[in-house]
Amino acid sequence: MLLKAPHYSSSAAFVVCLFLVGCNAFGRGPLHNAYNRPTPLHFGLYVTSDPKHNPIDPPERFAGYHAGLDFEIDPSEKDVDVPVYAICEGTVIFSGFAQGYGGLLIHRCKFQEQDVTVLYGHLKVEGLPEIASTVHPGDQIGVLGADRSRDTDGNRKHLHFAIHKGRQEVMLGYVQTPEELDQFLDPSVVLTGSEPNGPVKYEDPVVSE
After folding, report:
1. First to last CA, the chain
2. Which of 38, 157, 184, 207 is the most exposed place for a label (fewest CB within 10 A)?
3. Domains (ranges, CATH) in the chain?
4. For strand 102-111 and strand 90-98, is the pairing parallel, antiparallel, or unpaired?
């Protein structure tokens, strides 16, 4: 079960998290060194495929509000296996290839007594846990898919990480309205137990001239 630390600064929340029972796994995040990784495509950011309005080079081919948090790799990790870990306990409800993600794993979980589903995208398909299996905090659930491969559906090597409210299987990586985005939790808040930048502010779409 996910635990949320009291409201401290993000660094203080991380330290507190390490000392809470069952909190060490998601305190570390779904990747090693998660808190020091670049996350240019953060939760709530509105992007288009226009390079002017997208922080990724080359830009994502999708448009809308980003419904998760993208953890980028270090250049030294491009050609090595990068393990991905479960942040909480739950039953796997999707495991396999999905368009837009390549390898995808979704499992159920509880956050503050609320049912949620946790999504890990762009994983190597081979070796993913089976549907109906149970994952536990800190379990290695797979490795990131190779750069520009079928396992990333042609995308860069990175982890798309998202948390959706409820028990149903939802694969959306982008949504088109703030109301749809409200059905997701900000992963950075869940992982650190704090809101270092205050409540989520929706970033308005930018229309190309």
Report:
1. 47
2. 207
3. 10-192 (2.70.70.10)
4. antiparallel
